[in-house]
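Supplementary Methods. Inverse-folding protocol.

Structures were first reduced to a discrete structure-token string of length 162. This string, shown here, constituted the complete conditioning input.
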């Protein structure tokens, strides 16, 4: 019997590097905000950037931990509710970056196509959940770019990934 092998387009290592590149850029966007505006500035009823970053922090590590442990905990921003300074957010961001590396590497390649019920709400293959984490971050970072432009601040170039 002949079997046809389908070439892999992206390795898990490359996917993680891609995601961490986005995280590095989002960190630069956080850094660009003046302290007060990070917590208070918004446009058209959108949440301040600190709230958007809280959402990103509440997704990345908890979701990957859930995937690795097959634990469908509900979504919660409780772990980031008490962050009161931009420096505290940046520290939490850096801690999360390290934890993402740790948990991501525990996902066996054969599991990426397995279905996982993320936060008990979104039942998709693990690879699609990871794409959601990245897409959601890009979406919210775009809001941050709009805020920075409205504040008269030039945001980092979108290709800045280190």
């Amino acid at each position: 019997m002949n079997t046809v092998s389908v070439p892999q387009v992206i390795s898990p290592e490359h996917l993680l590097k891609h995601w961490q590149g986005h995280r590095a850029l989002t960190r630069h966007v956080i850094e660009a905000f003046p302290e007060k505006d990070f917590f208070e500035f918004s446009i058209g009823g959108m949440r301040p950037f600190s709230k958007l970053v809280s959402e990103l922090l509440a997704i990345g590590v908890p979701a990957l931990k859930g995937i690795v442990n097959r634990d469908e905990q509900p979504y919660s921003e409780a772990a980031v509710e008490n962050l009161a300074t931009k420096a505290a957010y940046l520290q939490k961001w850096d801690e999360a970056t390290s934890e993402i590396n740790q948990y991501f590497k525990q996902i066996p390649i054969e599991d990426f196509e397995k279905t996982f019920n993320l936060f008990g709400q979104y039942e998709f293959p693990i690879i699609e959940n990871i794409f959601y984490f990245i897409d959601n971050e890009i979406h919210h970072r775009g809001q941050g770019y709009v805020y920075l432009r409205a504040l008269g601040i030039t945001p980092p170039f979108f290709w800045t990934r280190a």
